[in-house]
Amino acid sequence: MKTTIKITTLALAAVMMSFKPATVTVSQKTVFTEAFTSPTISWKSDDVSIGEIPQSKPVDIIFEFTNTGKDPVIISEVKASCGCTAANYSKLPVLPGQTTKITATFNAASKGVFKKTITVTTNAEEAPKVLSFSGTVI
Q: Do 81 and 133 reside in the same domain of the chain?
């Protein structure tokens, strides 16, 4: 009985080794570029001058960008530089070819010249993008 099992095992091993394994050819260049491309975006403007605005009356400043890449853009954070500015943006991914808006609402408490920023973090840019707006409160 042991001899039969040994012969059967050897025969099965010989048969298995006689099969040629299937080969799959994959272009390393294609795999590398597809695996490491990141989304790209194009900002309409990253610095907006809003001119003269009234004191204590909120003003909306709109920043737009278009996803010019092949992958969705995800906005992970939008942070205002001060408490006088609030930011609003879509939490949905921005698909290739789509345009989206980030709205900064500025409520000036004091008169004078100002320059404020909002910082936008996405999966499309290595460093967060700093957007700015300026004007004069009258």
A: yes
Q: How far apart are the first and last CA of the chain?
A: 103
State pTM to two decimals: 0.71
Look up the domain containing 9 and give its range: 2-35
Q: Where are the alpha helices (DSSP H) in the chain?
A: 2-18, 28-36
> Residue 120: which pLDDT band, with cuts at 50, 70 and 90?
very high
Count of Cβ atoms closer than 10 Å to residue 9 Cβ = 10
Angle at 85 between CA 79 and CA 88, to 5 degrees: 60
Kindly tell me if the per-residue pLDDT of 51 is higher than 60. yes
Instruction: Please indicate, yes or no, whether residues 25 and 55 belong to a single structural domain of this protein.
Output: no
Total residues belonging to the chain:
138
